Amino acid sequence: MANKVTIVGSINVDRILQIDALPQPGETICMQDLTIAAGGKGANQAVAAARSGATTSFIGAVGQDLDGQMMLHKLGDNQVNTCAIQVMNSRATGQAYILLQATGQNSIIISAGANADVSSTQVNANQDLITQADYVVAQFETPITATTTAFQIARANQTLTILNPAPATETISKDLLQLTDIIVPNETEAANLTGIEFTNEQSMQMIATEFFKAGVKVVIITLGSRGCFVAREGFAKIIPALSVEAVDTTAAGDTFIGSLATELAPDFVNLESAINYASRASALTVQKLGAFPSIPTRNEVEALG
Ligand code: ATP
Ligand code: RIB
């Protein structure tokens, strides 16, 4: 049976600018197309979990504007419980400008807007959503103070925590790491946080060891088209990705995390099969444009065999 998952995180409207290549400083270029889609790391992870069958709740914020209404509807249409999403009249809904190159590579510029207003007070007011969940999941697009409060509540109530330390930062508080059960960075995030140069499997193991020392139980470093590296105490392995033609990798990591949170048994007994499920889900995501529009349902993932 799928888990109960609560996400503390960001909600953005994504504007995807399809271009051949990034402009040079001073250069003006024409885009091929502009697409608007629902996104935000937190929202993508929630939709990935819900489409895979998790009972999913969200703690976050939108502005009192049309984008905010659209995002609340989109999340609700995907069976995400939106009761703990605040509507702020002081700030606009979060925005992301995604420069998508012909290679499928993206560069993202975000405006946090209402995401910056997610607070510990709000988390405390909705703590039932955390205490009743199997997993609480957070990223770095909403304030760390709110995430730390959520993880404290989780730890005190046997709810497991998954931290996606994205977008990349140089530091992470020891307090937050101590409260993190599973950390899922990509290569850049893993190297930035530990200061260990990312070269080969040995460097991945060194990164994992740093996180273990801080109290983390499972480390999963996502490696894009190469798959991911997973480590627990006494176990480490690279699990390859499916070989597919990537159109837009936006939300690949988010799909991976939302799907993993849905599948992974709280005693981690099915770690490898849950990662295989998450890899299949994100291999589907990269084959379509946009965040929400590309995230697969459980039926679509299972149809891959
Ligand atoms: P994003 O920020 O774009 O959401 P990310 O950098 O957080 O992504 P990645 O490491 O790029 O995360 O991808 C997450 C997972 O998605 C990978 O571990 C892999 O399973 C899958 N994936 C990503 N890119 C590809 C690809 N080109 N082909 C197949 N699978 C992919
Ligand atoms: O991880 C992808 C997401 O990052 C996009 O949907 C965008 O909103 C940014 O938050």
Overall description:
The protein has 305 residues and is of the alpha/beta class. The chain has a single domain, classed as 3-Layer(aba) Sandwich (UDP-N-acetylmuramoyl-L-alanine:D-glutamate ligase), CATH 3.40.1190.20. The chain is 34% helix and 25% strand. The chain contains eleven helices and 13 strands. The strands form two sheets. The protein has a nine-stranded mixed sheet with strand order 5-4-1-8-9-10-11-12-13, with helices on both faces. Strand 9, helix 6 and strand 10 form a beta-alpha-beta unit. The radius of gyration is 18 Å and the shape is globular. Alpha-D-ribofuranose binds next to strand 2, helix 1, strand 7 and helix 9. Adenosine-5'-triphosphate binds next to helix 9 and helix 10.
Summed up, what is this model?
With 305 residues, this protein is of the alpha/beta class.
Strand order within the widest beta sheet: 5-4-1-8-9-10-11-12-13
Uncertain segments are none
In the CATH hierarchy, the third-tier topology is known as: UDP-N-acetylmuramoyl-L-alanine:D-glutamate ligase
CATH structural class: Alpha Beta
Rough outline: globular
User: CATH superfamily, please?
Assistant: Ribokinase
